[in-house]
Amino acid sequence: MTAEDRIAELENRLGIVEDELAIRRLQHAYGYYLDKCYYDEVVDLFDEDCEVIFIGGVYKGRAGAARLYTGRFRSRFADGHNGPEFGRLLEHPMLQDFISVAPDRQTALGRYRTLMQAGTHQLAANERTPVRQWMEGGVYENTYVNDGGTWKIKKLFYRAFWHGTMEHGWAYIPADYVPNASVTYPDDEYGPDELLANAPRLWPETSTLAFHYRHPVTGKEFVPDAWGKYPGE
């Protein structure tokens, strides 16, 4: 290997490290904006030709992402405006990240865990939004694209795994306590473009969301069953 080749290799490796840091910042910014209901800023993180998979629904393009964030979420958690609402708690820490940048540095995959805490304070409750306090855990498996040197979210796949109220915990929550989407747009003005086939269900199901990466020691690809089944199914 010539000195020039060695320098080019090192520059590419450094570039990949910089890409990983940029993608991590991108995803962490998503979590912080989501915490405070800055849904305009959330949508701006996505590529124009993006896709969001959330609770059994597939939202296509920036228009679909906007229906979910600036439509459904904003109306539910921020009373129709951009920014935090008094008495609402919505925390989405981005944890345990595993980022894989493609060799050409144009696309990347990332896996994150989130442990959400949310609720409506008694002083902010009304007939439409009662007092609530709950926790939820899930995993993101995302795809990112390098758009002219700026990393954007190309595909966001949030797989909720468990949900529980603070009053009763998670051991007694019905499996379909958080129902999957069942009506598409435009019949539902904030609905997804299509429904996810074989949509996942929450714990007590214990299926594994497929890993995008190979085993870091053995190099083997590990793709478990997509959702698993309930006993007897």
Topology:
Elements: H1 3-35, H2 39-43, E1 46-54, E2 57-60, H3 61-77, E3 88-91, E4 95-101, E5 107-120, E6 132-147, E7 150-165, E8 194-195
Parallel strand pairs: 1-7
Antiparallel strand pairs: 1-2, 2-8, 3-5, 4-5, 5-6, 6-7
Concise summary:
This protein has 233 residues and is α+β, with helices and mostly antiparallel strands.
Question: How does this model look, in words?
Answer:
The protein is an alpha+beta fold and 233 residues long. The protein has a single domain, classed as Nuclear Transport Factor 2, Chain: A (Roll). The protein is 24% helix and 31% strand. It has 3 helices and 8 strands; from the N terminus they run ααββαββββββ. Strands 1, 2, 3, 4, 5, 6, 7 and 8 form an 8-stranded mixed sheet that branches. A hairpin with a 5-residue loop joins strand 4 and strand 5. The longest helix has 33 residues.
